[in-house]
Design brief:
It is built from 16 helices and twelve strands. The protein is of the alpha/beta class. A four-stranded parallel β-sheet has the order 2-1-3-4, with helices on both faces. A four-stranded parallel β-sheet has the order 6-5-7-8. A four-stranded parallel β-sheet has the order 10-9-11-12, with helices on both faces. The longest helix has 18 residues. The chain is globular and about 55 Å long. The chain starts with 5 loop residues before the first helix and ends with a helix. Bound molecules: 1,3-dihydroxyacetonephosphate and iron/sulfur cluster (SF4).
Length: about 325
């Protein structure tokens, strides 16, 4: 692949900005996007923030620099808008962990249970769900379900285990995982704690290390005081306001660019350099430019399916 110089990047970003104006498009980018895509976007944020932006925008076109389920969620929330994704292959291993047939069978085995789906799911799965949530509001969503109801939580087992711990609520949990976050192990945490003894730990609840970190944090008040399990946007807010200025970050490494911009006086270290989502990295400046030029790739959700998925997604956007 040809290396892009700074002036080529600037030229492409200028081209993208003027195409976005011409098309009356808003560019939404997830915190895991490559730096040059984050830098050209109108809004950079987590799954919840991006959904809220999609629901509220007055633009005619939403270009989603993220993965497919995110663009699909935007299409459900804003059916009158044109939603584009620069690369249709930008999928998600977690969203692929359960399909609608498997969920329908799980519901049949558990009549009367309330289904809470993480936003990393297909529209078909959301259409069979009562609530949708993101890492930014999962706890509040679980707490909104009446205490006497059984909950089926899907598809992330690490987020599910974390939620059981913080809410004290026993749930049935689908055994899915995100390969990127599951790969961040307790050993990575132990090693980085030795290397940066004063750093604060910012941990995404999809991580394989999250439950053990929470356990270690309750055993050691000193460690507990500097351990925070947060969505990606929660990490940005924490880095801005924490009195500590050194942070170990356990999530996809794309967040480091955003964190560096939002808290330039702080130092951030990846808990694992291996934590790279190849799907998020499929979106490049060239593909974003081509997406605006050719108005591709359009993401649509069939109206009847969208109507069924919308209730769970709206509840997610409202419980913020
Ligand atoms: P948030 O940005 O909502 O924390 O989600 C992380 C993620 O893995 C999205 O795919
Ligand atoms: Fe999906 Fe994991 Fe990539 Fe997020 S980081 S988009 S959960 S594969």
């Amino acid at each position: 692949m040809a290396v892009m110089t700074a002036s080529m990047t600037d030229r492409l970003q200028d081209e993208i900005r003027s195409l976005a104006t011409e098309r009356k498009a808003v560019l939404l980018a997830h915190n895991y996007q490559v730096p040059e895509v984050q830098d050209v976007a109108d809004y950079v944020g987590d799954s919840l923030g991006l959904s809220q932006q999609a629901a509220a925008t007055e633009a005619n076109v939403i270009v989603f620099c993220g993965v497919h389920f995110m663009a699909e969620t935007a299409a459900v929330l804003a059916p009158e808008k044109t939603v584009l994704i620069p690369d249709l292959d930008a999928g998600c291993s977690l969203a692929a962990a359960i399909d609608a047939d498997a969920l329908a069978r799980w519901k049949d085995e558990n009549p009367g249970a309330v289904v809470v789906s993480y936003v990393n799911t297909t529209a078909e799965v959301k259409a069979l769900s009562d609530y949708c949530c993101t890492s930014g509001n999962a706890r509040q969503v679980i707490e909104a379900v009446p205490a006497d109801r059984q909950i089926l939580f899907l598809p992330d087992m690490f987020l599910g285990a974390y939620l059981e711990r913080v809410t004290g609520r026993k749930m049935k949990i689908w055994p899915g995982e995100c390969h990127v976050h599951a790969g961040i192990r307790p050993d990575d945490v132990a090693k980085t704690l030795d290397e940066h003894p004063d750093a604060e730990l910012l941990i995404h609840p999809e991580c394989g290390c999250a439950s053990q970190c929470m356990y270690a944090a309750t055993e050691s008040p000193a460690l507990g005081a500097r351990t925070h399990v947060l969505s990606t946007e929660g990490m940005v807010k924490r880095a801005r306001t924490s009195p500590r200025r050194e942070f170990m970050v356990a999530t996809e490494t794309g967040i480091l660019h955003r964190l560096g911009k939002e808290a330039p006086d702080a130092r951030f270290y990846a808990m694992s350099e291996r934590a790279v989502c190849r799907y998020m990295k499929m979106i490049t400046l060239e593909k974003l430019r081509d997406s605006l030029l050719e108005m591709r790739h359009r993401v649509t959700v069939e109206p009847e399916l969208a109507a069924r998925a919308r209730g769970a997604i709206r509840r997610m956007v409202e419980i913020a």
